Amino acid sequence: MKLYTTQLVGNMYADFVQIVAGLCNVKVEEVLVVIGSEQDKKLQKSSALGQYPMLELENGTLLCDSLAIASFLARSSGNSSLLGSNDAEMAQVDQLMQFLREETTPIVRALQWYTFGHVQCTAEEYNFVQMQFKSNVKVINNYCQSQNLKQKKYLVGDNLTVSDVYLTLTQVEMQQALIDPNLKNSLEHFNVHFKNMTQNCAAFQKRMGAIKVGKKQLMPLF
Q1: Please, which residues have CB within 8 angstroms of residue 178's CB and are 6 or more apart in sequence?
Q2: d(CA 210, CA 204)
Q3: Please, are residues 208 and 172 in contact by the beta-carbon 8 Å criterion?
Q4: Is residue 123 within 8 Å of 222, Cβ to Cβ?
Q5: 181 prior amide bond cis, ω within 30
Q6: pLDDT digits (tens, 9 = 90+) for 155-186
Q7: Across the strands, what pairs with 62?
C-alpha cells in the first residue's frame, strides 16, 4: 500500500496514519506528491474526494481522510481494538475523535500559524486563541482525570486506541514550545498521558523520535 502525502515533515495527518500502521504491523510506503504535478492531477481525478493523505490499496482503490484510513488499517489487520474493544468503547473513541478533530485541532493549528508567522495576527487575535486553547486543554485534562490516568494508561478502556495517538499528536508542538509553562504544569493528568505515549509507545517513537518538553513559550512578533 502507498500513502500519498504533500508534506513528509510536520504533517500530523500522515504521522497519524503511519503510527497506526506501525501499531498494526502494516508496512505503508509514503510517497510525496507535489501539488499541481501530473501525479497530483492523476490522483485528484481517480479519487472521489481528492484529499491528502490518500491511501492506495493493492487493488488501486484510493481512501482519503486520515481517520478513515487509520480505521481501515486497524480493521483489515485484525487490530480493531484500536477503535475500541466493545460498542461502548467504540462510541467513546468516536466522541473523543470528534472533539479533537472539530474543536482541538483548529485551535492548535491557529496558534502554530500565528506563532511561526505563517499567518499574521494582532495581539488581541493571538490572546483570544490562547484563551480558547486554555479552555480546550482543560476539558481534555478533566477527561484524563475522569479516566484515572494516574493509575491507567489510556483514554478509553485498558487498551491503546487511535484517540490516544491523535490527542498526543495535536499536543507535540504545544508541549515543545507553544504552551504557557504555568498552564502546562497545571495539566497533571494530561501530562501523565502525554509522557506515557511519547516515552512508552514504540510506534509513536519510531515515527516522531524523542519528544522533549520545552521550558519556555515562544511568542509571535506583533
Answers
A1: 111, 112, 115, 217, 218
A2: 9
A3: yes
A4: yes
A5: no
A6: 999 999 999 999 999 999 999 988 898 999 99
A7: 56
